[in-house]
């Protein structure tokens, strides 16, 4: 196997040969050894926009996870190839909602609420999918009057949905859904977790009648590790600490933090802080460690002292990056992500609704 130094030379050489023919995108959670080669690094929302930005490039090499590459394929120019350097880079949260289960849930909700709009023209339910989901689910939303959101625009998107619907079905991440709806003033009793067995019978019917946001049971295994106890420990050690967490964290953690926001929110908050600030961050470790290295004038640490990487983001290794880039130099496309047209068309509708939604 090639050494790190050899891979570095090979990636630089391939990128130099390819020039503007290829654009390399990287999510903030990618390891430093990969981020250094990205032409653009950002959060999920910014990367979706970046995928639209260079339609003349032959290929987009996406250093991130599968749902992000699918989204890039949906938004990229015609004929442009989107490449995921390692096809095993998925997202366990995205896998927690599959199209069959969501379609079955939808059928039960239609039985429960009917399909007729109310006096204000609002339909019974609007489906909202977090970006962290398969293209099939984005397509489902496109077909059923719904929309996509990311962690940076979930409140804007929920407002969009409530202008058009009486309720929202939010999947896959229960925590982002709950945290966002709570911040909008929706009481917890009106955000039941979807329970397919009980939904149509017994006491559950009353709960469902009052529901404003019906939450899917998905979660992120990285962000669910953060606890209120960790926040208390950070405050005990550093009384002036600023605690910022990602909204994929459980609600008590978000409530105990000073602020919450997408990865880009976290990056910008740190960049704007006066020198000598102390931050305890509740998100993926590669981003936190990079910020700590970039801002030595601050004290920055991860709330979870046991290192918690996103294991699937980590599957993008420089070796795979070298392999796909060198393939492109030879005119070979490896690991192309293509969303089939019957899914792509409605999925694009849901994504474009998100991109057009105004705060
Ligand atoms: P961001 O949109 O905040 O980058 O989040 C993506 C993600 O997967 C967080 O776990
Ligand atoms: Fe998915 Fe969580 Fe990894 Fe984000 S951090 S890609 S939600 S598993």
Automatic annotation (TrEMBL):
Coiled coil: none annotated. Keywords: 4Fe-4S, Cytoplasm, Iron, Iron-sulfur, Metal-binding, Pyridine nucleotide biosynthesis, Transferase. It catalyses: iminosuccinate + dihydroxyacetone phosphate = quinolinate + phosphate + 2 H2O + H(+). Its EC number is 2.5.1.72. The keyword Membrane does not apply. It is found in: Cytoplasm. It is an enzyme of class 2 (transferase). One of its GO terms (cellular component) is cytosol. The keyword Ubl conjugation does not apply. GO terms for molecular function: 4 iron, 4 sulfur cluster binding; metal ion binding; quinolinate synthetase A activity. Binds 1 [4Fe-4S] cluster per subunit. GO terms for biological process: 'de novo' NAD+ biosynthetic process from L-aspartate. Pathway: Cofactor biosynthesis; NAD(+) biosynthesis; quinolinate from iminoaspartate: step 1/1. [4Fe-4S] cluster binds at residues 91, 220, 310. Its cofactor is [4Fe-4S] cluster. Its main location: cytoplasm. Iminosuccinate binds at residues 27, 44, 130-132, 151, 246-248, 263. Belongs to the quinolinate synthase family. Type 3 subfamily. Catalyzes the condensation of iminoaspartate with dihydroxyacetone phosphate to form quinolinate. This is Quinolinate synthase. It comes from Leifsonia tongyongensis. The chain holds residues 68 to 426 of 432 of the full protein.
